[in-house]
Amino acid sequence: MRKPLLAKIKFKKKNFQRYILSYLLVFLVPFSLISIIWYKTSIDSLNDQIRLSSRNYLLQVRSIIANNMSQLDMLTKEIGANPKTTEKMAKHPYYSVEMMKELQRYKITSNIIDEMYIYYYDEPNKFYSSAGSLDLETFGKVRYQSYNIDKKQMKKLLDTKVPSIETIPSGNQALGLLTYLVPLTSTSGSAYGLVMYTMKMTDIEGILDKTVDKDTGRVYMVGENNHLLASSSGEKLPSYFKEPKEIQLAMNSSMIKTSDGVIRMNRLKDNDFGIQYVSFTNTSQIFKELNRTNALVLLVVFIVLITGIGAILIIGRKQYQPIRKIERMIDNRVDAIVEPSHLSDFDKFEYHVTHFLKQNEQLHQEVLRQTPYAREQVIRRLLMGRFNQLEEIQLLLQSVNIHLFDAGYFVMLIDTKMVNSKTSIQNQEFLMSFLDDLSGENYQAYGSEMLSEQAIALFVSLDKKVTQQSAVTDILKKIVSANSVAPATGIGSVVKELKNINRTYIEGLAALEYSTVFEKRTNIHYYEEISKKQEVDGFEYPKDEKLKLNQSLLQGDFEIASETIELMITKAIKSQLNPTELKLYTFDLLNSVVGIGVEIIGPSLITEVNVEFRNLTELKLELIHMSKKICLAVQAKPKSQETKLHKEIFDYLNREYTSHDISLEQVASEFDVSISFISRFIKKESGHTFSKYIQELRLEQIKKELIDTDKPIKDIIVSVGYYDVSNYTRKFKSIVGMTPGQFRNANR
Predict the structure, then answer these.
(1) What is the C-alpha separation between 380 and 535, in angstroms, rounded?
(2) What pLDDT does residue 326 have?
(3) C-alpha–C-alpha distance, residues 610 and 472, integer Å
(4) What gap in Å lies between CA 483 and CA 434, rounded to an integer?
(5) What keywords were assigned to this record (predicted)?
(6) Is pLDDT at 47 greater than 90 in this prediction?
(7) What SS3 string covers 410-460?
(8) C-alpha 336: how far from its chain's center?
């Protein structure tokens, strides 16, 4: 006794460890991946934000500086055109005062101008400003004595014939006075002088400082030949950004490693003024500021990890016992399943579940593939007698939210063959939607459109407080009241068990067929009333049983077919027919079965029929034998005609959508189904109405041809099925947001 107990304890321990390991893997693998991805994404996102932020800063700086420089260009043009600022006025002893006032007025129009000087090539040693005239020597030694102004270099700059931006060092500093020289041109286009605008570096720094975080980055202005023009405020210029060669090398690198950290470089060029704007961002400093936040996040991640592992231990321990109970439950409920003896408990559990899933795989695949049709599929298969186990029926009904009363069940077949025009399509669609889920006092009904029968099957469950007649009357009143339609209706008898619901379905089909075949004027036909009428009138050819037999064969239900044959033969025996009547009766019965058999199997069935029967018993055996073949042939066919038609219908639409004549009526005629069915079928399968689906196909084809071909737009639109090109062009623009021509240009 002790050894088996120890083995059992060891087995349980191994199972528990297996559970814990599986849960840990399920938790840790995605947790680790998500953590790594989150970290990598965060770093990349931050770097992208730094890059975008730097670029935005540079765009802002370029915009501000460019606006100011453009303003100086405009001032220069005004000075050249102003008669008060000519060279003659500058030299005049009296009118030179007027010129000084004009220059003073121009000067105050810009925030960055420190002073503006007019220089004429005819007077190479003299400047004119708002403060008066001064020579070149005075300019360098008095006006700007703190700057390193070289007279020869200044003379060279003043001889420029194109706009130029230069910087004049201040003492030991590379940056000092920023100058912008703009030539003055005559009406003939020749330069006769220039205007030199001087800007203090503090003013430029003020502009640059507004667009950068001083603690983590700096912005520089670099002129042509890679010489530094200006910089945002800071302690000193970095060693890697002083000389032109160093500047060129730095601008060619996207990242620079320094003792202060990793520096990320971004640059933006202004081609109009020949200035490059360069930003340096210390990413190490930024990440340093985020270290506290990172530490907090890592702490949270660690807490989540520990919490997750603790939860896994608790959940894994609790989950072991419920799964064991599920295995025992399957062992008790699943019959006739013998698993290999060498399997462990877990493998037995897997074996039973796999067996159960294989038995129901086809149904579950249909339900998962076509969720909107799940309820209709379950009802349809139930009516066709495809389920034999009550537990399976109840499970499937519950899975599609079908709730039934349990006192009795029957089926009503509502004829839809009368719908044959556009004006009736909406009526039938409304009727199907109305009957999809219909409830009343003490009854519940669910509808399903039966494609092959061109009818709507209404599956009705009853409570003990209501009769079949009262439920039928109430349902028909609601149909007429809501839809103004009184369709022909065949009603099967009430059954007590769900697994027999296909009997009442076949009886309903027989009753509906009875009204068509025998041209009855009334719209409501109970199968039971057909039988009672024949019993009252004495012996008459059993029309009700014959219709029921025909429908059972067409539906492939051998059980009902054999019972009906037995009933019809027994009735003939009890009626003691004379030889002539008996011969007519038996051959008509034989012809009915053979006729359906030829329709289902083919003419080859005729050669197998044994017509040399000596009595009714032999005839019964022959009929039952043929019925079995017919039912097996029916069951071997596709179980869902809608599933079979799905590919054919959409292949047809995808092939013929360019036709000018395509319509619901044409498609319905092509597949020999009702217009209403095609309309509802396409809506459910594609999510679009018929016209919307065709429009989408045509739109995609037009887009494809606009991009891939050079065909004229008119020919493309006509080729996909539209006559009115101008009207569709407007429609195309309302959908896509641009005309076909604009779409073609934008996507090439």
Answers:
(1) 32
(2) 64
(3) 44
(4) 9
(5) DNA-binding, Membrane, Transcription, Transcription regulation, Transmembrane, Transmembrane helix
(6) no
(7) EEEEEECCCCCCHHHHHHHHHHHHHHCEEEECCEEEEEEEECCCCEEEEEE
(8) 46
Which helix (H) or strand (E) element contains residue 524?
strand 524-526
- CA distances (Å), 689 to each of 271, 282, 403, 451, 676, in order? 55, 58, 31, 19, 12
Residues 416-426 as b or e (16 or more Cβ within 10 Å = b)? beebeeeebbe
- The strands making up 455-462's β-sheet, listed across from edge to edge, are 437-440, 443-450, 455-462, 408-415, 489-491, 524-526
Per residue in 606-630, pLDDT tens? Answer: 767 666 666 777 778 888 888 888 8
Name the CA dihedral angle for 243, 247, 249, 250, rounded to a multiple of 10 degrees.
130
Residue 416's pLDDT is 75
The sheet carrying 255-258 orders its strands as 228-231, 217-222, 275-282, 261-270, 255-258
Instruction: Evaluate if pTM is beyond 0.85.
Output: no
pLDDT for 231 beyond 70:
yes
Q: In whole angstroms, how far apart are CA 434 and each of 63, 82, 431, 446, 492?
A: 66, 87, 5, 10, 21
Which amino acid, one-letter code, is at 6?
A: L
Distance CA 286, CA 297 (A): 17
Mean local confidence (pLDDT), 391-418: 83
> Quick one: tokens of 55?
């670029």
| DSSP per-residue string spanning 669-738 | HHHT--HHHHHHHHHHHHSS-HHHHHHHHHHHHHHHHHHH----HHHHHHHTT-S-HHHHHHHHHHHHSS
- Nearest CA to 589 among 566, 614, 556? 566
* 3-class secondary-structure state, position 275: strand
Helical H runs in 281-333?
283-289, 291-333
Taking domain 641-746, whether its CATH number is 1.10.10.60 is answered by: yes
Q: How far apart are CA 416 and CA 423, in angstroms?
A: 14
What band does 94 get if pLDDT is binned at 50, 70 and 90? Answer: confident
Pick left, alpha or beta for residue 538 (phi over 0 → left; psi -120 to 50 → alpha; otherwise beta): left
Q: Domain segments of the chain: what residues?
A: 59-287, 360-537, 539-636, 641-746
Burial label, 484 (beta-carbon count in 10 A; 0-12, 13-18, 19+): exposed
Per-residue model confidence as pLDDT tens digits over 170-186? 766 667 788 899 999 88
**pLDDT value for 346:** 62
Whole-angstrom distance, CA of residue 538 vs CA of residue 239: 121
Q: How far apart are CA 545 and CA 572, in angstroms?
A: 12
Token readout for 238 is 């970095």
The per-residue pLDDT of the chain, averaged, comes to: 78
CA–CA gap between residue 353 and residue 330 (Å, rounded): 8
Q: Is 685 a residue whose pLDDT tops 80?
A: no
Report d(CA 282, CA 735) in Å as an integer.
Answer: 48
CA dist 737 → 249, 688, 701, 740, 746 (Å): 47, 21, 17, 10, 12
Give the span between the Cα atoms of 706 and 609, in whole angstroms.
64
Does 388 score more than 80 pLDDT?
A: no
Identify the burial level of 95 via C-beta atoms within 10 angstroms of its C-beta, where 0-12 means exposed, 13-18 middle and 19 or more buried. Answer: middle
Whether the CB-CB separation of 222 and 276 falls below 8 Å is answered with yes
Residue with the two structure tokens 């559990």: 349
Tokens of 519: 């041209």
Of the chain, the end-to-end C-alpha distance in Å amounts to: 83
Sign of the dihedral defined by the CA atoms of residues 362, 365, 370, 374, in that order: positive
Secondary structure of the chain: what % helix, strand, coil (to 5)? 60, 15, 25
493 is written with which tokens? Answer: 């008898």
Instruction: Determine which helix (DSSP H) or strand (DSSP E) holds 176, and give its type and residue range.
Output: strand 173-185
Look up the CATH superfamily of 59-287: PAS domain (3.30.450.20)
